[in-house]
Amino acid sequence: MPEKEFKIITPGSQEKGLESGEEKEVKQRKKYEKPVIESVDKQTLEKKLLAQEKQRINETLEKIHRPQIQARLQKDLQLTKQPEQVKAESEPAATYEQTLVQKISNKSKDPFSYWSFFNARYFNQTGLLTPWHVFNRKLGLAVIKEQDYESFADVKVNNITIEDIEKLSEEKGWDPYLHSRGAGKIRGSIKVEGPLFGKKPAELAWVTYFNELYYSGDFLKYDLDVNFQEQISAWTNIDNPAISGKAEEIMSRYHLDKPFDLGKEIYRQALQKLANKIKEYVVANCLPYEFFRGDRSKTVVAMGAEISQEIDKEREWEIVTGLENHQFDEKIFYLGPGAEKYLEYLKSDENKLNNFELELIKKNLDKLASFIKKRTISDLGPANALKIIPLLEKQLESQKEVAYVPIDINPAMIFAAAANINNPKVKVEGKILDFTKPLAGKFESGPKFLTLLGNTLGNGDENYQRGLLKNINQAMTADDFLMVGIHLKSDWQEILKNYESAKGREVFLSAIESIGFPLDKIELEIIADEENRQIKAMVKIKEDLKVRGVRFKQGENLTIFVSQKYDVGELENLAHSAGLEVEKTFRDEKNQYELAVLKKGK
Questions:
Q1: Is the pTM above the cut of 0.90?
Q2: What are the extents of the domains in the chain?
Q3: What Cα–Cα distance (Å) separates residue 435 from each residue in 406, 452, 467, 471?
Q4: Does domain 333-490+567-600 have CATH number 3.20.20.10?
Q5: What are the pLDDT digits (tens) for 48-69?
Q6: DSSP states of 244-299 as a string?
């Protein structure tokens, strides 16, 4: 039973309608009568008194801080400039001011932000009622405001890195035709700074899980969990134990909010923001559809990855530089949608040059057997891996298991390669990286048979070709071999037909559009430069335009693709200049294609 508080009520206090003559008698009687006791609930009384106390404190605080709030509001109304307010700036001043006041009003609903001090109900919501709390909070919020933060929960992401991707074999759910689970696992890290993470940027590890919810035809619905503690697999809402656990860890490490009494809740809010940013980046770079498409349900593949926002910035710089110089690195064709278009081209009947290479490999498998025996095949630019499958099958004639490492800039290529192999005796562990960048130290240990097929060597001028071979040479050991495939100079018109085909043009146009060129304002021309022994794809500008900040005038031309064609014996000279020696050479009967097995020079 709750304690009782006693309230004094005199017997005559509830009497009504007494005549004036009687009132005097009643008053006289009150002096001598004993009081009647009526019990009331103590909790009710305490709540009433607390509410009155809060109201008095709020009124006092409002009087104290109103001048400062009004001054700050006036300053922010004058200085705040946000993209969505550009239109408002052209409207009458009253409308513009009303827009900003509304925005500030919305921000004030965040109890951990500077703007909460514009919310009259803030103090009741948080219970931080003492002037000491308010003073400390205002002091801290003023500091973070100078650092361009508006809330203790604000974060600035410096970099998101994806370090490895694992596609698991599909596990069926309760309906084997529609549902599955655990289709993929991705790990990485995020560098972040903010009021809760100390003076230096903090780096947090994370892991995500792709889970399919529903799949039917072209429709796919999936969920992506983000955890900051790998051992906990749970949803990323505010009650997620992975989020809560990490919040406690960060709080105990920094505890910067101690003077402000914010508590663990603010850390959970900050981590949830990070989880959302990670989700966006993973979805944009890890091709969710590849984890669930029916034709690859049993495919298992692991990939080490070099995917990050810092690399994205470097790549953007390369593209802009290419625009300014009117010539590009051909790797732009294998980024984004260009990779899928290229894979479609490889499957088409129009692709004849790559068929020459495949037939040359099949024909010489016995001669290649000694080079590939007990070696890991590391495939630079695997495409669909169809040209590697005969080599793997040859290895399996004398080995129980073999290893295959597809290496490409785009995960789509590695997914495609693993799906086409789809052999439990072949362990597929890909690498997502740009192999035109330094490769030393990035290959696994043990003897390797590296491949650079599909005339990939010819995707640039002579300096590019020599530089690529030197880069690979520096990553090789004395036990390794490198097989290079090149197109030889032959019938130019026949070669040109491969590039001018419908599927071939789609590859070029997809890359051109992804760079930012409107297709209705350019013209694609593919030519044979017989003097320099090159096939070139040119973009002709039909009218003045601007792409990624670079201006182009009508009539200008850009070279977006170069494919070198070689003379017989030219590859041997190029290899020597890069410190490599030729061990064996294979050519088809019509001298259209050449394969050369190279090793490190002495």
A1: no
A2: 4-43, 156-310, 333-490+567-600, 492-564
A3: 11, 11, 11, 8
A4: no
A5: 666 666 566 555 555 555 555 5
A6: HHHHHHHHHHT-TTGGGT--HHHHHHHHHHHHHHHHHHHHHHS-GGGGT-GGGTT-
